[in-house]
Amino acid sequence: MVKIHDKKFVSADAEKCVGCQICEYMCSWTKEKAFNPIKSRIRVVRVNQLANMAVTCRRCEDPPCVAACPRDALKQSEDSGTILVDDDKCNGCGWCIEACDYGAVMLHFESKIVYICDLCKDEEGGPQCIKWCPEEALSLVTSDILAQKARISAVRKLFQDQKMHREK
Amino acid sequence: MYGYAGKVLYIDLNTGKTWVEPLNQEYAKKYVGGIGLGMRLWLDNSKAGVDPLSPDNPLVLSIGPISGTVFPTAGNGHSFVAKSPATFGIGEAVAHGTFGSELKRAGYDAVIFKGSSEKPVYLWLDDDSVQLMDASHLLGKSPSETEDIIKQDLGDYYVRVAAIGLAGEKLSRIACIINEKTRAAGRTGMGAVMGSKNLKAIAVRGTNDIRVAKPTEFIEMVKEFHERMKGPAAQKYRTLGTSENILVHNALQCMPTRNYNNAHFENAKKVSGEYLNEKFVVKIIGCSSCAMRCEHEVVVPEGPYKGTLTRMEYETLWAMGPYCGIDELDAIVKGMELCNYYGIDAISAGVVVAFAMDCYENGLLSTKDFDGLEANFGNSEALIQILEKIGTRTGIGNILAEGVRIAAQKIGKGAEKLAQHIKGLEVTGYDLRCLKTAALGFAVSFRGADHNRHGAYAFDVKGKVDRLKAEKGRGKLVRDMEDIYALIDSLIVCKFSRGTYYKGLVDMATLYTLVTGIEMTAEELKKSGERINTVARLINIREGLGRKDDTLPWKVLNLPIPDDGPVKGAYVTLDELNLLLDDYYQSRGWNSNGIPTKMKLEELNMNALLKIVEEKLEV
Fold first, then answer.
1. Which pLDDT value is given to residue A5?
2. Residue in chain B lying closest to A33 (CA)
């Protein structure tokens, strides 16, 4: 039975993200001992100067990447929600890449096997992107925490608005 | 090899031939990278007296050894070097963003463009694949539009693009090269050099790994600098940004106003950084690998220019605001957007517009010259219209697009006195009449009037010296700052991060060693800084510049500050200028004509370049 605090993923606060790519550099450094954004498990998108956001695996319920794989190379860990890639089965066909709505699955252009954020499961300090983000824009969340945050900020805003109305 | 990619790419635009040569290791260590390496490579690839807008003026794009790493602010810069069509001496301009790091991952330390293409082209660097692509469909497009179209054409969102706008195509001497919408290699007309080569843009995609020589210590240093960047050294850039200077300079009465007719602006509050942040700034973003982020994105909230989006900094705000006597922030922001649209250096553009307004108020240009426009100081509509004319080179804009020096020659009637430039490059937002250390720094700057070659204004503005006094000792202050600034632009790190190098050159040398594995000391690095300034000087001497060009704008030398207050009456006399120059040359080990001596060149291991000055030294 999955508890509400178990299934975590990295989420970026679009208000705080400045598009600096430090998460990309530190992810590729952690995983591949090289600075190279294309090898990062988290990618930054700057649609224009005002729209910056880092995107990575959101550990979907019933993940489409897993469903799409014709070779059963992907499966989702039941407790953590991590997408696990079986290196022997993956042949780099890319159906999982197409299936993912977030572009969180990528094909490693050297090993020819797909790779996905695993929350730095082998690192003592947890996800390195979060640790290094200078803007504190990244955080480890669950869907419940995201809902809580949205709720709280909506209510805060409502009360701020009321306060402003009173002051008028 | 660490740090350096080890390769220099040559592109002959005459023939379309491209080839790669190994990076000269001696140059790498002696000239570091960025503008230092770029200038040294330019020297090897050019002949004396070359016309800046001819195919024989190579355009060098170079990056530094730290590029592509995660070191905060250091991973992302790039520089352009060529003979300047504005100064006819060495030109260089640095920009940040993500373009430089992409170029490093593509595997090059420098790209040298020679010749000129018959048809408009753009360069497409896809790792080690090099292609010249047809750019006829990009002509007339802004750098931003060009970037979007190229990404679409190539079908790759992560392609990084540096491009010129219409002004560069039309060879305006104040044209710049813009990457990622708002980042400009602004000064000295590099956009015109690119335009003269029929080269519309450079598109890069690089996927190579970047590693460093000493990873564990390097990461520790990155961590330390992340902390420093949260501290006081970067606070200004993280909060109000450089626009904070408006009220600071205004209070000190060192903000040139209305083309140097005043030293402070009575309506400064309406264009202050504080007001800009309160009403216009919607987001602050960062360049690749930056841990401080400074780029203030502004959006006009209401009125005729509602929705205009651009980046805003002090210099450009000053140039199109107080310097033109304009106190309407929305029009200034619109002006900035137009500069980015046409690809013109917004500092020079503002100074050119103010010059035109001064000519108008003094009767040297008439309403007819402006196609019916009343081009008085403070007329924001005139600012917008004149910028449009400059960008498209129509009407009076055709002359103004040449920059103030050449425009003044064409207008005649004594317009030279109103042209505030040094060596043909337009002034920036520091009133040199009451900032005499800065005045020296500006006078000797190898790229012409500029604060970014030395930062010597800091001594004056912060009260570390008597800013109204010209005295011995200022030469050394300027020299030391020049050496550090040259290194900043060669490593390349961001000038805004300079305060986080608590130990200055010691920190920079450590960074260099950790990345490249090449042992470097602060003393050696300092020597490189001196060498970079010296090679720039040698180039300028080769191109015919000398002591006579180390001078100040006419008003700085002739028009005392009229504003009531602590600096009333201040200006720089010729005697003061000469005293400052002598002191500076002496501290540099140059002779009284400003020519580096044989002894100095030998000390800097620059014997190979002695031939440039040998004859002049004998005289």
1. 77
2. B211
